[in-house]
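Quick one:
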Amino acid sequence: MFDISRLRRLAAATGGASAVEFALVAAFLILPLTIGVYDFGTALYYWLQVGNAARAGAQYINVNGYSSSYTTSGNTCVSGTTTFSCAIKTATPLGTNVTVAVSSNSPYCGCQSGTTYNAKTFSPPCNTCNATYTANCCPAGQTPVTLAQVNATYTYRPIFTYFGFGPSVGFPLSAQSTALLY
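Output:
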């Protein structure tokens, strides 16, 4: 029936003790590593989505024209409408948590050729000459362009605060995109 000598031999055996101890300790080491990798991957995903929001804002400006009032702050997307906020909302799953706005120093001017871009200090319209640029606003072979910068920001809140590493309120993620106006 029940062999007590077999039970005594099992209790005296120590061959697998180190493997059991390693399994218990490894679980506490691998769990934080796994959560950290997950958090980093999620932050990277959200950073890519912030970039998508900035590019969607620049594309909206390219298609619908420039306005200094374009912002997602305080604006909602009503179904069936085509607004700046709706363009951002459909481009990214971040919804109203991402803030996208046209930069306060937009639009700005520059001269470009096929391979180079030179920023200029005169204000739009960029093909208008001023006291500094009297004959041709841009050097020969370059075209005057007007650009607008779109900025997107989002605050990523990690799963854990990681014991004082990094801000406890989250990490600011940001991206910029440039729209060619004319």
